[in-house]
Amino acid sequence: MTTGELRRMAELWAGAMPVKQIAREMGYSPNTVRWWAHRRRDLFPVRSRKFAQQERDEWADRFIDGELTAEECARRAGCTAWTVYKWARERRAQ
Questions:
Q1: What is the end-to-end Cα distance of the chain in Å, rounded?
Q2: Do the beta carbons of residue 31 and residue 22 sit within 8 Å?
Q3: What 3 state SS string does 26-63 have?
């Protein structure tokens, strides 16, 4: 990978583009993008979003009530469907 490609990949990463989309645009596999992101944290800072309990409960309720699918909740919230399933499980246990 050239320095220019790495710089472009870092720009896409900073713009919050998903790994799969970065991989498609750059012509690399998602695993390659993840490898570089892990190896060069100076260019690819960790991307994680913290959700307040109230926000997690709201998304879980929308999923539990059947208003939205887990995938749709995840897309709108900016997380994974697995996370929405986890929030719903926790919400049901309350």
A1: 49
A2: no
A3: HCCCHHHHHHHHHHCCCCCCCCCCCCCHHHHHHHHHHH
pLDDT in tens, 19-71: 999 999 999 999 999 999 999 999 999 887 789 999 999 999 999 999 999 99
* Distance in angstroms (rounded) separating the CA atoms of residues 24 and 48: 22
Q: Which two tokens stand for residue 57?
A: 């409960």
pTM of the prediction?
A: 0.57
What b-and-e string marks burial along 36-58, b requiring 16 or more CB atoms within 10 Å of the CB?
A: bbeeeeeebeeeeeeeeeeebbb
Q: What does the alpha-carbon distance between residue 60 and residue 82 come to, in Å, rounded to a whole number?
A: 11
Surface-to-core class of residue 81, CB atoms within 10 Å of its CB (0-12 exposed, 13-18 middle, 19+ buried): middle
Tokens standing for 7?
């710089």
